[in-house]
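Hello, quick one for you while I still have it in my head. My current little project is about how a certain protein chain folds up. You're getting the sequence in one-letter code plus the fold written as tokens. Would you mind checking whether the tokens look sensible for this chain? Here's the protein in full, and shout if anything looks odd to you:
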Amino acid sequence: MEEGVSGADLVIACIGAGLRAYTQYDSVELPNGDELDANTFLDEVQKEVLETVLSDVLLCDKRGVSAVDKPTQYYILGRYEYGEAIVEFDEANTLARGVGIELDGSGGLTDGKLALVTKNKNKIQLRDYSERGENEDLGIQKTEKQQTFNVKPQAIGGAPTLIDILHRLLWLSEHKPQDITNFLALAMPDTSQLRLVAQALAGRALTPETRQENITNRTREQQAIDTLLASWKRVIEDNLFTQRG
């Protein structure tokens, strides 16, 4: 990144360098003597490259990266590599495999009304907060419908992703700021991780350096995040502190 190479070009360049050994030697072996096929090696190289990119964009070490859920990792990398562009499914699916998540099919990122990605034939595009944030179920842990008196409802499914919580917050900030307090009480996010994600998506790493840095070249989502970050303590931290206190 310090050399001015970023986005998909950086990933391709790193993977190409990683595969150089396969063009120089008849075979590549592990320390124990087992042969390492090109596909397995490629997967490992891509995983390492993506973790490095995430570390740089999130401004944290790999342990910090691992604390961020996979769909959110994919969204950050997708914005880093593709921006708001419509891309080929195969290319986006390769990125998903590198992160370790399913892009398509049941339970994948394109599945359901809360889908993070929209798919049209062999093309995909990331959905931003303006397309997802209106849904009242976004970013909230589902619980069982039947409740017993004085017993905490049982959670159903996994915890909400950081990108779901952020998208809902951005939408509420614009349209229903009075509902933010109640939403935070239900979502109860890790504020440090959530802020890392917000800062990453708003950061310079996701905006080409060749452009003049001003509000006109920032996406609508980045501008919304800028507004939220400017009032982060009042809107997020103070609300959660009051609830947890």
User: Anything to note?
Assistant: Residues 38-58 form the longest helix (21 residues).
